[in-house]
Specification:
Blueprint (H helix, E strand, L loop, with lengths): L6 E6 L19 E2 L2 E2 H11 L4 E6 L4 H6 L4 H10 L2 H9 L5 E6 L6 H6 L2 H4 L4 E4 L3 E3 L5 H12 L2 E7 L9 E7 L5 E9 L10 E9 L3 H6 L11 H9 L8 E5 L4 E3 L3 H13 L5 H17 L1
Parallel strand pairs: 1-4, 1-6, 4-5, 8-12
Antiparallel strand pairs: 2-3, 6-11, 7-13, 8-11, 9-10, 10-12
Catalytic activity: alpha-D-glucose 1-phosphate + UTP + H(+) = UDP-alpha-D-glucose + diphosphate
Enzyme class: transferase
Protein name: UTP--glucose-1-phosphate uridylyltransferase
Length: 299
């Protein structure tokens, strides 16, 4: 019987240059989405899917991530003395979420290299990879479905999203074959950021993967591509051929709510969307937004 997937890998070594100067001293993963850093949403998603062993792949100047998931005894004691149980509970939420480990990436050689740094921790088990730029709404449990498909098919599973064909050049695009499930496809090829006319489909790869451990062997022999980086996409393309008995690659087509925090405008949209749906903030925010937008319409 296959071992239950319990490990999640979260690459978090990027410099966050698109958000400078905010990310000059603050890791982009710590930028708040309403009142929680983006990285906490990602860890919470992993835990909700049953992955209680989390490995973060960090770069330099990322100590804030470790501090966020650590105890802050003096802050906790201050809140206890004030009797502020609500804030205390919020502060301690991140502390006990999961068993979190950290490893440095060292040289910034791409996503494939970051995943390869997880080899010793993961061992010979299948595992999940979650990228922090994509936040998946907790009401739409994508990762749970992906794990189910992995268990069912014994294959690597990636998340796919139908996008406007005019936007496919911003993503990796999947070439696919249908299966007996309309929300699951077999991946036969991957093209990184293709032109619209060259794209094999409008199914874009988004930042969730459930990967068999054979990926490490493939990554070790994957040659660096553009910019000297080792691409996870290249390894997945080889695994899709199933030449080494890796079970192939399947895609789960996600039709739920996703928030992109990797782009400034989309980050702002994500914050507004999530805040507008909260019970404590939503009513006042929605009322204010209505008047704010109406002001533009009158101009």
């Amino acid at each position: 019987m296959a071992k239950r997937i319990s490990k999640a890998v979260i690459p978090a070594a990027g410099l966050g240059t698109r958000f400078l100067p905010a990310t000059k001293a603050l890791p982009k993963e710590m930028l708040p989405v309403v009142d929680k850093p983006a990285i906490q949403y990602v860890v919470e998603e992993a835990v909700a899917a049953g992955l209680d062993d989390v490995l973060m792949i960090l770069g330099r100047n990322k100590n804030a991530l470790e501090n966020h998931f650590d105890r802050v005894a003096e802050l906790e004691q201050t809140l206890v003395q004030k009797g502020d149980e609500t804030k205390l509970e919020r502060v301690m939420e991140s502390t006990g979420l999961a068993d979190i480990h950290y490893v440095r990436q060292g040289d910034p050689k791409g996503l494939g290299h970051a995943v390869l740094r997880a080899k010793k921790h993961v061992g010979d088990e299948a595992f999940a990879v979650l990228l922090g730029d994509d936040l998946i709404d907790a009401r739409d449990p994508l990762l749970t479905r992906m794990i189910e498909e992995h268990d069912k098919r014994g294959a690597t599973v990636i998340a796919l999203l139908e996008v406007d064909p005019d936007s496919i050049h911003l993503y990796g695009a999947a070439e696919v074959e249908a299966t007996d499930d309309p929300d699951v496809v077999r991946v036969t090829g991957l093209v990184e950021k293709p032109a619209k006319e060259a794209a094999p489909s409008n199914l874009a790869v988004i930042g969730r993967y459930v990967i068999r451990p054979e990926v490490f062997e493939v990554l070790e022999r994957t040659e660096p591509g553009k910019g000297g980086e080792i691409q996870l996409t290249d390894a997945l393309m080889e695994m899709a051929d199933d030449v080494a008995g890796t079970g192939g690659v399947y895609g789960v087509v996600f039709r739920g709510r996703r928030y992109d925090t990797g782009d400034k405008l989309d980050y702002i949209k994500a914050t507004i969307q999530l805040a507008s749906e909260r019970e404590d903030l939503g009513p006042d925010l929605r009322a204010w937004l209505s008047g704010f937008v109406a002001g533009f319409e009158r101009e």
